[in-house]
Structure formats: structure tokens, C-alpha cells
Amino acid sequence: METIHPITVHFPVALLITAFFVETLALLAGKPNWHRVALWTLTLGALAAAAAVWTGRQAMAAAKHSFEIYQVMELHENLGYVVLSLAVLVAGWRLWARDRLSVKSRWIAWALLGSACGIMAFSAHLGGRLVYEFGVGGVYGRSGGIEVR
């Protein structure tokens, strides 16, 4: 393994999806304490996303790749920046407002977080393609020499 990027990416995935799930339950069940749990999970997820983007840049610099791989890698990277931006935006907004948002604002924050999770899912798919289809960062997929029968 050339970098720790494959390890760090799991933290924002787990934390941001958990924050979205808990926030959804808080909105639907009207449980104010759950909003606080979602906020702190989101905040940790945003920090983890920053670490994933940082380690991803290191991994990209270390990986040998063709133009085809570079195109997928560049989209994966750009989507990572979008996810990080949305997570920081929502976490920062909620922290700045001390999580005293109107119902409408909570739903807007929820939609932004949901968008981040959806974009993150597609970016994770691209990351999986890079590893298992193109063999970037390991000996997997078509260029890694592993034969599947």
C-alpha cells in the first residue's frame, strides 16, 4: 500500500452517512437531542473528509497511471472536494448557529448533507473502480495480474 488513503476513506463514509441517518430520524421523530448527535457526527465526518482528501492527494501523486486512469482519478478527486465542501458548509453553518436552526433551515441542511452522501457514494464507486478495475494502489483487477475463474 503506497499511502493510507484506502484506510482514511472509510471514516467520512461511515460518519457522514450516520449523521444523515440520525438527522433524518431527528427530523421525523422530533427528537432535539438527536440533532446534537447528528451535528457532532457530521463535524467528525467533515474532519475525516479533510483527512481523506489530503491522503488522496498523496495517493494520486504516488500512483502510476495512464490517461484513462487519470480521468477517473480526477473525477474522483473533484467529487471528494465537493463532498468536503458540503460537509464543512453544513457543519460550519450548524456550529455557527449553535444548532439553533428553524425547521426550514434544518431541512435545507439535511438536503445538503444528503447530497454530500449521494456524491460521496458515486465517488466511492469510482475509487473502487480505480482499485479493482484498474489496479491502482495494489495488485487487484485487470492490471494486477489476479486471474478470476
By DSSP, the count of extended strands is 0
Residue share in helices?
over 70%
Looking at the overall shape, the CATH architecture is: Up-down Bundle
Low-confidence stretches: 143-149
User: What is the count of distinct domains?
Assistant: 1
Major pleated sheet: none
Description:
With 149 residues, this protein is an all-alpha fold. It has one domain: Four Helix Bundle (Hemerythrin (Met), subunit A) (Up-down Bundle). Helix content is 78%, strand content 0%. The protein contains five helices and no strands. α2 (10-29) packs antiparallel against α3 and α4 (67-96) runs antiparallel to α5. Mean pLDDT is 91; it is low at 143-149.
Overview features:
mainly alpha, disordered C terminus, 5 helices, Four Helix Bundle (Hemerythrin (Met), subunit A), 149 residues, elongated, single chain
Furnish the topology, listing elements before pairings.
Elements: H1 5-8, H2 10-29, H3 32-62, H4 67-96, H5 103-133
Helix pairs in contact: 2-3, 2-5, 3-4, 4-5
Overview in brief:
The protein is an all-alpha fold. It has five helices and no strands.
